[in-house]
Every structure is written in C-alpha cells, then in structure tokens.
Specification:
Elements: E1 13-15, E2 20-23, E3 29-33, H1 36-51, H2 66-79, H3 85-100, H4 110-122, H5 134-153, H6 183-191, H7 197-209, H8 213-217, E4 224-225, E5 233-236, E6 256-259, H9 262-273, H10 275-278
Antiparallel strand pairs: 1-2, 2-3, 4-5, 5-6
Length: 279
Amino acid sequence: MSSKRKKRWPRGFYSDGTSYRMKTANGRFRRLGSNEARALRKFHQVRRLENGGDAVGALASARMTLRTVAERWLEAQQADGVRDADRDFGRFKNHVDPLIGSKRIGDIEARDLMLMIRELKRQKKANGSPRHADGSIVNILGVCSSVFELAILEGAIEHNPVKHIPSRKRPKKRGKGGIPYRHHEAVALMTDLRIPADRRILNTLQALTGMRIGEACGRRWRDYDRETPGLGAIHVWSQYDDQPLKTGRASHEKERFVPVHPVLAKALAQWRLGGFTEV
C-alpha cells in the first residue's frame, strides 16, 4: 500500500488516499481515521502526549474511570480550540456520568452502553413524553465515542466499545422530511401585509437564500454586495451578534457567498428605502 505525505502536513502524518495515519515515537504506525480534520486533531494530541507538554498530563490507564478520561478529553478539546467542547461535555456530565461515569474505562463494554441507551430511552418528562429523542441519544453516544478514541490514542484501551454496539440496537436520527411550506404559503409569508414588515423581510431572506434563522438575523448591509457580477451576493460569515457559524470549526469557519434572487433584491431595496429606517 502506497503512502504519501503532503508538504503542508506535519512530519509523521501520512495518507494512503482513503485514510490517515501517523508514525509514533516508537516507530509504529497508528491509523487516525478517514476524516482529515479529525485525524490532524488526533495527531497533535498524540504528539503533545509524547512530548510531555499536554495539558491533560500523563497517559491514561485502563484503571481510570470514564469520568476522569472525559475530563482529560475536555481539556484536550479545549486545547485544540474545538468550539462545542463545553456543550459536548455537558451531554456527558448530564446523561452519561450518572449512569456509567464511575466505571473503569477498561471494564466498559458495548453491553454497558446498550444498558445506558435503554435507561435513557426509559426516562420520561413530567408530562410522560420521552426525555430524550433518538437524535439526542445519538449525540450522547458520539461524545462517548470521542472519549474512548482519546483513551485508545493514549494506550489505555484497544477498542472503542461504541463501535461494537449492533446497528439494530443503535438509535438513529430521523430525517426532518416533508415540505414545510407550499408555494402559496411561502409567498404569503413574504408578502402578506398582515405580517409586520421586519418579519416579512426576514422570511424572504430565509426563503430565498437558505440561511438559518441565526444567519439571517446576523446579516448587515455591509454583507450585501450589489456589484457582484450577475446577481448580487450576501456574505454569510457569522450568526447573530457575530457568533461563529453553526457549521464552522475552530479556525476554518465555513463562510460563504449566497446569490441574491431578483425578488430578494427588490425586497431589500424597498426595505432599505422604507421599513428599515422606521424600525
């Protein structure tokens, strides 16, 4: 199997075209997965551990509790600048820690995680509805899997028990499906005079650009370039109050330019001359 290393990659980081791997300090190769960004993050975690300068300190062991490894994982995520690290750790603290947080990480098997899934599905709200949707449980398992991957990188365990859960036992995210609005309903949301003018322009922005609500609320006139050849363009680079985009990760935010439909261009022109000055 051929292996190549790009110049922009750090020394010791390789790809065979489908997956990424690294050469550790002892000369052995370790597979890092098929996603480049995650593989690079794992690479730098291992290098910091090898150099003895990582914030999480000495290597993990199989005798450590899952709670302890998760706390080390949080520190590693924060050191790597992962934006949602605190939110993900909150999922662990609120839902995983009370159930299996005190177990030694080397003793946790897929069976323990299946029991955890069963308990999460059993939990109810005060009104009797399920406390956790399947999508929420999928996100919780994703955090667990990431914690186990850190333990594998540090040599505490050899396998990720999340990946050993049978597919039929795994909860699955359900697609949103369906069409939220028919054509005449969308037109009404953009033009019906019974709707306040600021709401109509917000509806028009979302309907004709595909922006999320936070992205639409965060747009300013300086983001609108009417001189872009062909159609004008709106620069989508942040959410409301200059918060990073929901799809952004650390330093490589996924900003984009959205073409402005002629109907939207007309609505924006009217809004700037009229309603905008009155709000």
